[in-house]
Design goal:
By secondary structure, this protein is α/β, with parallel strands linked by helices. It has six helices and 16 strands. Helices cover 23% and strands 21% of the residues.
Length: 320
């Protein structure tokens, strides 16, 4: 996978910790990124497991989502581990392979005594819908956990709860755009991602919406034509990266385990080379739609994904 690595990107990303979609994952550690101490860099905490092999994903659509919205998100999940030739480079699959090669394979190989690496694949297991919002339109984090359990995720799998734009969630837009957690006893993890179209687009859908504060540059065109859904995909990708590399809070992370920076949330606001606060980088533009993107997906889809932290260079790595 060809990447552009810039140590300056990590420094610039620190400035964006309070102004981009992933405020929830480690804002309190932002100062440390200016003068990194090797002892506090993102590292593997030995003994912490990662998710690998075939990872089944179970989805709960909470609230009303159109068939088109569901299709865009499901295609993203399919894009993660689709065959390389199925999408032009740079691709979502390339982005995912960085996670597999840098984070998952080393742990898998070590735990198998060098018996060989097992490629990690994301498989969509089942989808449930709760259009009527059985727990109401205002959810606590405890209710998110309960909703995730209703999908009955497999051991080593991930339950994903998507909430519609008219559903409020505790802390949504006030330091939180999405989250991941776990049930260590069951060996499962869960992710919540909210639709930010109307509740907090300046924080959770940037750069497809003007930022809540900072440089007020014109927003970019969402590649799939929907600010809320394209914002959800950015946040989903970040949480997937964290869920597989730090599923139970004791594997790959930087800083405090209570507010960790993880594989993707270490690089907020960095999408391509040239990123700086208020500017997402030199992105590709789809001539047909005007949408900005940095990764091709299955079925001709295009997506915008945040950079991943490159452990070998201590810098953010972006798709070329």
């Amino acid at each position: 996978m060809a990447v552009v690595r810039s140590k300056a990107a990590v420094l610039l990303a620190a400035v964006m910790l309070v102004s981009t979609a992933q405020l929830c994952m480690g804002a309190r550690r932002r100062v440390e990124l200016y003068r990194p101490d090797p002892a506090t860099m993102l590292t593997f905490h030995k003994g912490g497991p990662v998710l690998n092999g075939n990872i089944s994903v179970s989805i709960l659509w909470y609230g009303k989502f159109s068939a088109a919205h569901k299709s865009v998100i499901a295609d993203f999940l399919l894009s993660l581990t689709t065959e390389p030739q199925a999408a032009a480079a740079p691709s979502v699959a390339q982005w995912w392979s960085t996670i597999d090669q840098q984070y998952l394979s080393p742990v898998t190989s070590a735990s198998s005594n060098g018996a060989g690496k097992e490629t990690t694949r994301v498989l969509l297991a089942n989808q449930l819908s709760d259009d009527a919002c059985s727990m109401g339109n205002s959810l606590t984090l405890a209710q998110i956990t309960a909703l995730a359990a209703t999908t009955k995720p497999q051991k080593g799998g991930i339950a994903v709860v998507f909430t519609a734009q008219d559903v409020t969630v505790e802390g949504f837009g006030m330091g939180r755009c999405s989250l991941h957690g776990s049930d260590a006893g069951a060996g499962t993890t869960y992710i919540w991602v909210g639709n930010p179209a109307t509740q907090c687009p300046g924080k959770c859908a940037w750069p497809f919406h003007q930022p809540a504060y900072g440089p007020q540059v014109p927003p970019l065109v969402a590649p799939n034509g929907d600010v809320g859904v394209d914002g959800m995909i950015m946040n989903l990708a970040s949480m997937l990266a964290g869920a597989v590399t730090n599923p139970f809070g004791n594997a790959y992370y930087q800083g405090s385990s209570d507010a960790p920076l993880e594989a993707c949330t270490t690089c907020p606001g960095v999408f391509r080379s040239g990123s700086y606060p208020g500017y997402a980088g030199d992105l590709k533009v789809d001539p047909a739609t005007g949408g900005s993107y940095n990764a091709n997906g299955a079925r001709g889809r295009k997506y915008l994904l945040r950079a991943l932290y490159d452990i070998s260079t201590s810098a953010c790595a972006t798709l070329v």
